[in-house]
């Protein structure tokens, strides 16, 4: 049975990623591809693959939250939400949108966990579904991170050359 709340949250996450691409036009393709996994969740709900939709709805936002925490966007987003709490204008719209996306991600994890527990908790499908969803998510975000890393030029290209010329003579002693 299609759960409209999860489909709505998945659509809201897609819209939030597309709004992020509007705020950061140089990263349009990255945010566009980030939103596609939520389209896959909606399609799985539509085609009654609920167990994978629920599990992917828990795993994919959790991995995205971990990546944003590692990059530092979650702390900056919390700072922007604190500015809003004190009725001040946010200074960084991208961090504010990342915080809103993080809130939607936590809601998505909670709703999917509730539905999973309600429909599939005693059927011994957890480990297989979790493993398949985790592998799909890691491969998906791994490809995105590698692609993103290759498309962004290094901030100090001369530093790589300087390190190479400094360390190569000393490695063969």
Give the low-pLDDT segments: 162-173
Helix content: over 70%
Instruction: Report the mean per-residue pLDDT as an integer.
Output: 77
Give me the secondary-structure category.
Answer: mainly alpha
Describe the model.
The chain is mostly helical and 173 residues long. The protein has one domain (4-171). The chain has seven helices and no strands. α4 (73-85) packs across α5 (93-120). It starts with a helix and ends with a helix. Mean pLDDT is 77; it is low at 162-173.
Task: Give the key terms.
173 residues; disordered C terminus; globular; 0% strand
What is the topology?
Layout: H1 4-23, H2 28-46, H3 50-71, H4 73-85, H5 93-120, H6 126-151, H7 157-171
Helix pairs in contact: 1-2, 1-5, 2-3, 2-6, 3-5, 3-6, 4-5
Short structural summary:
By secondary structure, the chain is mostly helical. It has helices at residues 4-23, 28-46, 50-71, 73-85, 93-120, 126-151, 157-171. It has one domain.
